[in-house]
Amino acid sequence: MTAPDATKQPTGLGLYTHAAEQAASQVIAAYSTSFGWATKLLGTDVRQSVKNIYALVRVADEIVDGAAAEAAANGGEVKPGVELDQLEADTYAALVNGFSANLVVHAFAITANEVGFGRELIEPFFYSMRQDLVNQRYNQAAFDRYVYGSAEVVGLMCLAAFIKYGGVEYTREEKLQLAAGARALGAAFQKVNFLRDIAADFNALGRSYFPNVTVDTFNNAERDRLVADIQADIDVASRELPNLPKSSSRAVAACLMLFEALNQRIAQTPADLLVRTRIRVPNAQKLWILIKARMGVTHG
């Protein structure tokens, strides 16, 4: 066995965890420009925790409809369902052991144990990820369950980190209110992405997330209904902004303003164009939103 490198600080498990967190940071840097920019507005301690959470979420997403499926299509013996099951099992083992040979899982488990969440949030997440392995259309109950597991629980995971490192004591009622805001933030993120990706999800992946909505019948009235629902989630999350710790409120404000800007662009796009075009917020507008959030602005 090779002795720990005494020239490195920390050493041993601490050094391994540091390397794992660097790996998690690279995942967010590679996959999400907007979210990566927003994390820079977080306090130092909470920032790494959020990156650790995001990295596992991203890897799971790549298993169900990204890199793993492409590897299988290229002839690799990759079974996305098996890979997802293994990732989930590895995550639970790492929660217990405080270690994983998978650097992303290791970083996630360290954060989960430190900030205080576990299987109660992780199991719904993997349930929803598993639904993406089956091409389907959702009724309202299934849609709500999917959004909770795929996005709302991620908001709750991040909230646990916000509270852990925020230096603020909250009552039980205040935590419940913050949790409602965190769930709404996650729901807004997921729904607005579903809406802008409606054509790709339906045509390329065979999915229709929104109940009773297809690209063949999609019209401006349905667009307006979905935009209003997303805006309602944004409004719920925005009401909790003043109650968040200062170390996280600016980053959350930036995310909300970005979601709202995207939602507004969707609202202004004719339905027949929306099902053919992926709407995005220009980088210049994203940068301006981040500057405003850093200055303490909370609304577009």
Helix and strand content put the structural class at: mainly alpha
- Total beta-strand segments: 0
Number of helices: 14
Radius of gyration: 20 Å
What's the CATH C level?
Mainly Alpha
Task: Characterize the structure shown.
The chain is mainly alpha-helical and 300 residues long. 71% of the residues lie in helices and 0% in strands. It is globular. It starts with 11 loop residues before the first helix and ends in a 6-residue tail after the last helix.
Topology:
Elements: H1 12-31, H2 33-39, H3 44-65, H4 67-73, H5 80-97, H6 103-115, H7 119-131, H8 140-164, H9 172-196, H10 198-203, H11 220-239, H12 246-267, H13 271-274, H14 283-294
Observed structural traits:
300 residues, mainly alpha, Farnesyl Diphosphate Synthase, 14 helices, 71% helix
Nutshell version of this structure?
Helix 9 packs antiparallel against helix 11.
